[in-house]
Amino acid sequence: MEKALTLMTNVGDVVVGRADRLAELATGLAEPSMDLVEERTRRMRTIRQVFEEGDWLTAEQINALQASPPSNKAHPASDWKRRGRIFSVNYGGREYFPRYEFDALYQPLPVIKEIIAAFGDVADAWQLAAWFHFPSPWLVVRDRRGARNIAPRDALADRAREVVTAAAKRSSSYIA
Predict the structure, then answer these.
(1) What's the distance, Cα to Cα, between the start and end of the chain in Å?
(2) What DSSP line would sit under 88-127, residue for residue?
(3) Residues paired with residue 149 on neighbouring β-strands, in sequence order
(4) pLDDT exceeding 70 applies to what percent of the chain?
(5) Burial class, 67, CB count within 10 angstroms (exposed 0-12 / middle 13-18 / buried 19+)
(6) Is the pLDDT at 106 greater than 60, yes or no?
(7) Euclidean distance between CA atoms 83 and 169, whole angstroms
(8) To the nearest whole number, what is the mean pLDDT of the chain?
(9) 129 is in which domain, residue-wise?
(10) Of residues 27 and 96, which shows the higher confidence score?
(11) How far is residue 22 CA from its own chain's centroid?
């Protein structure tokens, strides 16, 4: 009985400690560490760079670019996203879709669904957007200038299979 009481007291201390931490966060008493602030600053710089260097579309723009636009302006983008055929990011309070996900008729490239599946679940869609944007060590182009890495978004047209493989490799590697 004494052991059970001691154990319950220790568990109670943990619960109280967690409740205190939540109360600190709720009342604004908890200060983020400088490491966290620096990490979030780097993240925001990356997001800004990816967004500024990309070509982005809203669901309404995708709707307007369809041969027969649905009356619901969120369609077909919301349906394609729900089915895992495309992904989106949020920027400035709006949802955006990268242009490279679509063909000339603004239909999803079939390989995007495969890439999303190979990449795996992410809590933050910006992680996927950044992966598409920056050169990948798994995608190399060799020409008269030598060998260089290319971004997955730049290899979708002629090296789609390699991009799917690169997405799968990144989840089992320390290399992005």
Answers:
(1) 53
(2) -EEETTEEEEEGGGB-TTS-B-HHHHHHHHHH---S-HHH
(3) 140
(4) 86
(5) exposed
(6) yes
(7) 23
(8) 87
(9) 32-133
(10) 96
(11) 28
Q: Where are the beta strands (DSSP E) in 11-166?
A: 56-57, 89-91, 94-98, 136-143, 146-150
Of 38-42, 94-98, 151-155, least confident by mean pLDDT is 38-42
Q: DSSP state, 1?
A: -
Please check whether residue 44 is in contact with residue 92, taking contact to mean a CB–CB distance below 8 angstroms.
no
| Inside any domain, residue 39 | yes
Closest of 104, 105, 112, 119 to residue 83, by C-alpha: 112
- 130: nearest Cα among 43, 56, 58: 43
Number of domains in the chain: 1
Task: Please report whether residue 101 resides in a domain.
Answer: yes
156 lies in a domain? Answer: no
Q: Give the phi and the psi of residue 134 in degrees, each rounded to 5.
A: -95, 150
Bridge partner list, 150: 136
Q: Is residue 47 classed as helix, strand or coil in its secondary structure?
A: helix
Q: Scanning the structure block, which residue is given the tokens 């077909």? A: 76
| 139 within some domain | no
Residue showing tokens 């925001």: 44
pLDDT digits (tens, 9 = 90+) for 47-68: 999 999 999 999 999 999 999 9
